[in-house]
């Protein structure tokens, strides 16, 4: 199970939100590049970056900062936020980003996302499906920076994009994100049981090393961790000692 430290960029700072609420933004550093360097020095090989300004404005805003992180570290990046077109995606890929993250667009414009899968190949795309109502039989996808609940279910979206070869899903229970209450292990078990062989990334609320052990044991491909690292609940080096975890 790979460990992805997370950097969310807002106003050129590294921040964390709670449940996707921009009003809850807490700034941890005015230098996201320095944060990335520190994650790498702690043993990380991967990095999850979200351009929150891009999410707000529907276009890539923080590409210069992202390009600097890519240039000045050896980290393998997956990046989301404001990617709406093949041109947006290629700008990031041309800067060395390994994978792009597609979220709201997957619900709002499936034909464009299908064309991205065809143009880039499934290996270049992480499909972010962020859910509300997750303990029900039908978790529903939220869009527009998690502020709007769609009528599309998690199961519907995964099944649809499986026809285009999607290989990696980033799944977040929004109610857990940044709340420090732990992640929704039950949701991930159901997702893995429904779609054996799918690479699933857990994100949102991971608060303890015990959770990481449980996620690794159930076959999670990777985990995205933010607040727990920033607030020293556990370290990158400690996370990498979990059986089944890797750089």
From TrEMBL:
Originating organism: Planctomyces bekefii
Catalytic activity of the protein: 1-(5-phospho-beta-D-ribosyl)-5-[(5-phospho-beta-D-ribosylamino)methylideneamino]imidazole-4-carboxamide = 5-[(5-phospho-1-deoxy-D-ribulos-1-ylimino)methylamino]-1-(5-phospho-beta-D-ribosyl)imidazole-4-carboxamide
GO BP annotation list: L-histidine biosynthetic process; L-tryptophan biosynthetic process
Keywords: Amino-acid biosynthesis, Cytoplasm, Histidine biosynthesis, Isomerase
Active site per database record: 8, 130
Enzyme class at the top of the EC tree: isomerase
Record keyword Lyase present: no
EC code(s) of this entry: 5.3.1.16
GO terms assigned for molecular function: 1-(5-phosphoribosyl)-5-[(5-phosphoribosylamino)methylideneamino]imidazole-4-carboxamide isomerase activity
Protein name listed in UniProt: 1-(5-phosphoribosyl)-5-[(5-phosphoribosylamino)methylideneamino] imidazole-4-carboxamide isomerase
Pathway: Amino-acid biosynthesis; L-histidine biosynthesis; L-histidine from 5-phospho-alpha-D-ribose 1-diphosphate: step 4/9
InterPro entries xrefs: Aldolase_TIM, His_biosynth, HisA/PriA, Isoase_HisA-like, RibuloseP-bd_barrel
Cellular component terms (Gene Ontology): cytoplasm
Family under the similarity heading: Belongs to the HisA/HisF family.
Source organism, top-level taxon: Bacteria
Compartments where located: Cytoplasm
């Amino acid at each position: 199970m790979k460990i992805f430290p997370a950097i969310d960029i807002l106003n050129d700072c590294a921040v964390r939100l709670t449940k996707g609420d921009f009003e809850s933004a807490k700034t941890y550093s005015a230098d996201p590049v320095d944060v990335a360097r520190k994650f790498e020095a702690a043993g990380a090989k991967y990095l999850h970056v979200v351009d929150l300004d891009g999410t707000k404005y529907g276009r890539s805003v923080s590409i210069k900062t992202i390009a600097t992180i890519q240039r000045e570290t050896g980290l393998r990046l997956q990046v989301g936020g404001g990617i709406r077109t093949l041109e947006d995606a290629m700008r990031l890929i041309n800067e060395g980003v390994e994978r792009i993250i597609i979220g709201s667009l997957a619900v709002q414009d499936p034909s464009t996302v299908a064309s991205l899968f065809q143009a880039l190949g499934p290996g270049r795309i992480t499909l972010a499906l962020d859910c509300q109502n997750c303990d029900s039989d039908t978790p529903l996808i939220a869009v527009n920076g998690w502020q709007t609940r769609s009528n599309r279910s998690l199961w519907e979206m995964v099944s649809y994009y499986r026809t285009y070869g999607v290989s990696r899903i980033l799944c977040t229970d929004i109610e857990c994100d940044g709340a420090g209450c732990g992640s929704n292990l039950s949701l991930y078990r159901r997702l893995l049981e429904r779609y054996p062989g799918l690479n699933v990334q857990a994100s949102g609320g991971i608060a303890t090393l015990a959770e990481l052990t449980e996620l690794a044991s159930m076959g999670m491909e990777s985990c995205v961790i933010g607040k727990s690292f920033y607030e020293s609940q556990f370290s990158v080096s400690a996370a990498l000692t979990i059986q089944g975890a890797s750089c």
